[in-house]
Amino acid sequence: MSQKDVWQRLAESEEIIEFATTPARAFMLIAQLQLALRHPQNRGSSAQFAQQMIENLSAAICYHFPEAKEVIEMGSNAAYDVTNEYFETEF
Predict the structure, then answer these.
(1) Residue 90 has pLDDT above 70, yes or no
(2) 45-64 vs 23-37: helix axis angle to the nearest 10?
(3) Which residue, 9, 52, 74, 90, is the most exposed by fewest CB within 10 angstroms?
């Protein structure tokens, strides 16, 4: 099977893959997705899917830990970015 065939099968598959994790690991995955979405060329359907994953994982975490909502939202807000200047002044 060629690489093109593999990609085609993946694209056409509607198999459900179950995913289970802990809130902490879901939080880390959200952070990685938020970081990836900061790239200016990360647009299109895969970026939309990543945003949906963030929303779904966030809802699952916040169902059990509502106080996490604000912290998760900070990851999509550049105003909360830690900069080099922060490390130079704080440490």
Answers:
(1) no
(2) 150
(3) 90
